[in-house]
Write a structure and sequence with these properties.
Length: 483
């Protein structure tokens, strides 16, 4: 099977191979750390984590760089409004971002460069563009003249001439551009109180880098002048990624990224989730409502990344139940007794696991089709549960094949490891109390005091502990408080 990804640049799904065999160099547009990220932001980060994990599962070595934008108009304005330093704004937001990142089980990437630590590289990139004739200077600022770059706007399928009517407002409206379509590479001169917050010396005088410039400089610093994959949300396509292409390729004369991949918006009750609309949730706010991180992660990954995903609290409850079903199936596989020679009528669990692997790989190879990959996984779970219900005996090899399939599934989706962590964390310190209450309930039932037994069951459920009575006794598990 061939791995294929949609390329925003060509607007087609293409066979994927990295420039260096076996090694993928990937750049991810990271957060602007002026305020806590919401789960709409994390939809893109979770999908990029899925992409990273799947590439590794398919045998590639991945070098991923995700920047932190810790200087731009919003971070500076936050510092000015609050009368504090830029670092005092960005440091706690960065810390909370990585707390949420860890909570959702996202893998650490190889590098997280900060814009403020790479200003010399940004200045050098502007000098290269200056030498290539793509810039002009005015009032201490340096601008990129898009008329001088053939093919500007191709990533977004935009006709540059259409941009002549009116100017773009992206924090550059106070700058004296010769053409309203041009963008600022280096922001210099007197700009209100910006100099009090963030300013660096440069060949053009004191100032600071423009937002678009930051990503190009950091990407090329760690991944070279041509990347394999550049990712982000669809809202990054224009103007950010369009401008990244112009300034990067203008400086190097080489393609900046071979594949551009973009995730669609997360909606909230049918509208784009955004801070400006006030219809957003943070990871922290959902945890406070009693939802599990594994359910949040599952929901964010449940639809194809190029389709809009509508977030609802009911949908999050459904996601929690889906993870619980997978988790309970894995526990059933682990606890089912097996035999080395179960007989000819034993179910072919190895064949079932092999069919899952073929369907799962085909789905993810097809432009990372997560929804079909999940569908294949639940088909395996359903068929395996039926087989285990009906079988007199099952083989050791068959159960091992199912276990390996689940491990492979979670190497990519990462929800079972999260649920395991939640169970371990939630059960720490309460095992003895739960077992004591179960014993008390058993004694009440033996005395036919069913009201007392039901009260104990309700008491446990109030603490997030659900009981399951079976032939071998009573088992317990933690459940979401949001159920």
């Amino acid at each position: 099977m061939t791995l294929r990804f949609h390329n925003t640049l060509t607007r087609t799904v293409e066979d994927f191979e990295p420039a260096e065999p076996g090694h993928v160099r990937m750049y991810t547009c990271g957060p602007t750390v002026y305020d806590r990220a919401h789960i709409g932001n994390f939809r893109a980060f979770a999908w990029e984590d899925l992409l990273r994990r799947y590439l590794k599962w398919r045998g590639y070595r991945v070098t991923q760089v995700m920047n932190l934008t810790d200087v731009d108009d919003r971070t500076i304005q936050a510092a000015i409004d609050r009368g504090i330093s830029l670092d005092e704004v960005t440091a706690p937001v960065t810390e909370s971002f990585f707390e949420d990142w860890e909570t959702l089980g996202l893998e650490s990437v190889e590098r997280n460069p900060r814009a403020t630590e790479h200003v010399p590289q940004m200045i050098e990139l502007v000098r290269r563009l200056e030498g290539a004739g793509f810039t002009y200077e005015k009032d201490g600022s340096v601008y990129f003249a898009i008329d001088r770059f053939p093919g500007y706007g191709g990533l977004a399928n935009i006709d540059p001439e259409a941009l002549r009517i009116g100017g773009r407002v992206e924090g550059d409206e106070n700058y004296s551009k010769e053409n309203p379509r041009d963008f600022v590479l280096w922001k210099g001169g007197a700009r209100d109180r910006e100099g009090e917050v963030a300013v660096w010396d440069s060949p053009w005088g004191p100032g600071r880098p423009g937002w678009h410039l930051e990503c190009s400089a950091m990407a090329m610093e760690y991944l070279g002048e041509t990347l394999d994959i550049h990712t982000g949300g669809v809202d990054n396509i224009f103007p950010h990624h369009v401008n990244e292409i112009a300034q990067s390729e203008g400086a190097t004369g080489k393609p900046f990224a071979r594949w551009w991949m973009h995730a669609e918006h997360l909606l909230s009750e049918g509208e784009k989730m955004s801070k400006s609309l006030g219809n957003f949730y943070t990871v922290e706010s959902l945890l406070e409502r009693g939802f599990r991180p594994s359910a949040i992660r599952y929901l964010l990954l449940s639809a194809h990344y190029r389709t809009q995903l509508n977030f609802t609290l009911d949908g999050l409850k459904d996601a929690d139940r889906a993870v619980a079903r997978l988790y309970e199936f894995r526990r059933r596989v682990a606890e089912t007794p097996s035999a080395e020679h179960p007989g000819s009528d034993a179910p072919d669990l190895e064949g079932l696991a092999n069919r899952w692997r073929e369907a799962f790989t085909a789905a993810l190879d097809d432009d990372l089709n997560a929804s079909d990959g999940l569908g294949a996984t639940f088909t395996m779970v359903r068929e395996a549960n039926l087989a285990l219900d009906e079988a007199a005996a099952v083989s050791t090899a068959g159960l091992e094949a199912l276990r390996v399939a689940l491990d492979d599934f979670d190497a990519v989706f990462g929800v079972l490891a999260l649920r395991e962590r939640e169970e371990a964390s939630g059960s720490a310190g309460i095992e003895e109390w739960v077992e004591e209450r179960i014993a008390a309930r058993a004694a009440a039932r033996a005395d036919r005091d069913f009201a007392r037994a039901d009260a104990i069951r309700d008491e446990l459920l109030d603490r997030g502990v659900a009981l399951e009575d079976g032939p071998s006794g009573t088992r317990w598990k933690l459940v979401s408080q949001a159920d």
